[in-house]
């Protein structure tokens, strides 16, 4: 489910409990990632995983596992650039360094990491339906950005059984908004009001630190930790009516999480592996545009899961998580999964899992918590909001041998009480608020029910030792079952993609030069825009090719050409008349650069 995936680094949450990036910027709290050279592997778990991970894991989990502290000093460096053929798009440049090694024999280890990213200003123009070239605005023309991440980790091996880890990380994302590329800079409106709400720069800072203990003993293992996350957004100002408190001041958007958790894995006899644990999470947020300006909520949880080996080739996993939320009370998220291996090559599996996610605390107030339309239209909270929940069924078959693999997965997900907004026109009555005094107003609501069902297919073949061909296909059929807006019932969910196809081939020459080519198709993404009578966005096909060259054991070069056929996303506009005003709509669901060249130089010592 798009937007409902929990991102972890070494099992630690990277998202924040507060809404620090309103108006489409909230995913920025997940954009602070470590240097690629520090990553050992990435684990992806599809489907609801709230049993083990709690709220936010409603659509799955991505866990980025970084390298352990080395027993000898190792350093990796990388320089990269993305160069656009069309000079209207700004180029991007990056650099990173990762170093790890011992400080005191085998007892104390240190890791250092740093990443820098710079993007030039873009000046993209678009062709509208009349053939005119018009400047892009906001997300259509990426703005200048300068982002960095720096962190360190100290690992202390107290003895053969106990390890203590202290990690601290700071990131800053700096965006230029001098020309309103991200949003309209604050300016006077009618009757003493202010609209816009953006400053000339947007600067988002993130600070994460944790202390953890890992114990591996004869009969069980345990991992416990105390984590503190803080994200601040310094690029927004208070707008609204003249009576709005703090009008014209910085919104001082700050979110803080304190997380205390523990998990133990206990083998029980020959056939059971029990995982038990608990979590306490306190979420705080401040935003001066809301009243009250400060909110907080806590969550207590305990969970247990058992992997039962019925036979050597048959395993049954079942468990549940009990949550007590300060506002939403009690919730139980169970999960059950069966894995059967009739042969060494064939795996059959299937199960049922559940998920839930609570609303941001600021959306529960009985007043305005944000403004849309560049500061003109208030968005009101709703104290009666419910938590979002899902129930997922999955069945899969995987065959894998030395020559090829094939996989097929069928899934059905029932999604309930999705949080959305309802529109109210001027002078309409808003429940619990009163009359809408703006041209339009919005209020947070629970959307209703959506059903997702589909199939995922995967295949790969290695007919030669150095040749790999991989294929992936996803079919998704979504349908809105219940909704406040009756006109969308029976239709696909907005922006849902029906067909997604990927084909990639690579061949390695002498284990030194590895060229590859890749094609991606996106077909039938639902648009549902009745103004231009278009049901689906335009289909997209993108091709790319590249090569990796291992110069020696220390140095390698990666090069690639993305959007090989220079597909344009700037000429797909259609228009309609809205109260005598011509409104243009992009019939592609996203804006992407044309043909561009990527190159990176990587060294390891």
From TrEMBL:
The way it spans or sits in the membrane comes to: Multi-pass membrane protein
Where is the TonB-dependent receptor plug domain positioned along the sequence? 4-61
The protein here is known as TonB-dependent receptor
**BP-aspect Gene Ontology terms:** siderophore transmembrane transport
The record's listing under CDD domains reads:
ligand_gated_channel
Could you tell me which PROSITE patterns the record lists for this protein? TONB_DEPENDENT_REC_2 (PS01156), TONB_DEPENDENT_REC_3 (PS52016)
Q: What is stated as this protein's family in its record?
A: Belongs to the TonB-dependent receptor family.
